[in-house]
Specification:
MetI-like fold; two-stranded antiparallel ribbon; about 75% helix; mainly alpha
């Protein structure tokens, strides 16, 4: 007993002698580092809201919801945002129609069917797509995919929303596949073994056991992929063109919200003009789109998350 008291006293004396300033400084330092992203987000939101408010103060709300977009018209500039919203939604929808089936198929194969050797080879090859610069994807869409599609669809324009949508889907495949595979690998092995022990095939285990159990992670990966497609710039700027007319024809040129921002930041809009402030209004709408997608992803993840 006396020995234990001596040891305890030695420990307290050792702690008392230490003047470990790092223990007091590091939490403050780490808090500051963690606050950088929060402060950056607040700065972005403040900039967008402040300058977008000037635009909304000059342009009636009914005009913003119109289909007439002619911001550089010298006599009567108009700022209908619907053509930009439609172009953004169409390109993102086409991208997800490509990325979701291909990405989920790749995830199922890698997590359920691939051998260790095949997985070690195929997964890095798949993730190489994520490292390709988006401007390279844009030129690929314009110089290769569009001419190829024009042979299949004669009415396809040289600038269209179909080609960049497909290429954006290819770009997003690694995100959907990797996140979905991680969600599938998190499913306990006992559930797979139990299903196999009941006589299920590997495909039945994947479709009826693993995917339902990992559905929260899979849906989150899809929603994050949509957010990535909505915010894509260079692919649509190069391959989709800058047609500002309202259209539902995906074989023709459409301008997206990011493409509009790229076009105007090249110097077409003078500082302080309504066109200049329309950039911030479009940026705010785009921010709200992506924020909404991320909130949906978080809600779905919480609602359908399986706890093992």
């Amino acid at each position: 007993m006396e020995g234990n008291l001596n040891i305890r006293a030695m420990i307290h004396d050792n702690i008392a002698r230490k003047h470990n300033r790092a223990d007091r400084i590091m939490p403050v330092f780490l808090l500051l580092m963690a606050s950088v992203s929060i402060l950056t987000t607040l700065g972005i939101v403040f900039t967008l809201v402040f300058d977008a408010a000037i635009f909304f103060g000059r342009v009636p709300f009914r005009e913003i919801l119109s289909t007439d977009l002619a911001p550089l018209n010298a006599n009567n500039p108009t700022f209908g945002m619907l053509p930009l919203m439609v172009g953004t939604l169409f390109s993102s929808l086409i991208a997800m129609l490509v990325a979701v089936p291909v990405g989920l198929s790749a995830a199922v194969y890698l997590s359920q069917f691939a051998s260790t050797r095949n997985r070690a080879i195929l997964k890095p090859m798949l993730e190489v797509l994520a490292g390709v610069p988006t401007i390279v994807y844009g030129f690929f869409a314009y110089s290769f995919v569009t001419p190829l599609l024009m042979k299949l669809i004669p009415s396809l324009g040289s600038k269209n929303v179909l080609s960049p949508g497909i290429v954006m889907g290819i770009m997003i495949i690694p995100m959907v596949a990797s996140l979905s595979e991680d969600a599938m690998n998190a499913v306990p092995e006992a559930m797979r073994e139990g299903a196999l022990g009941m006589g299920s095939t590997k495909l039945e285990v994947a479709v009826k056991v693993v995917i339902p159990a990992a559905i929260s992670g899979i849906i989150a990966s899809i929603v994050l992929g949509i957010s990535r497609a909505i915010g894509e710039t260079m692919i649509v700027a190069i391959a989709s063109g800058s047609n500002k007319h309202f259209s539902l024809d995906i074989t023709q040129s459409m301008q997206t919200m990011t493409g509009y921002i790229v076009e105007f930041t090249s110097g077409d809009a003078g500082s302080g003009t309504t066109g200049y402030y329309s950039l911030y209004a479009v940026g705010l709408i785009l921010f709200l789109f992506t924020l909404g997608m991320n909130l949906v992803a978080q809600y779905v993840s919480r609602k359908y998350r399986e706890v093992y």
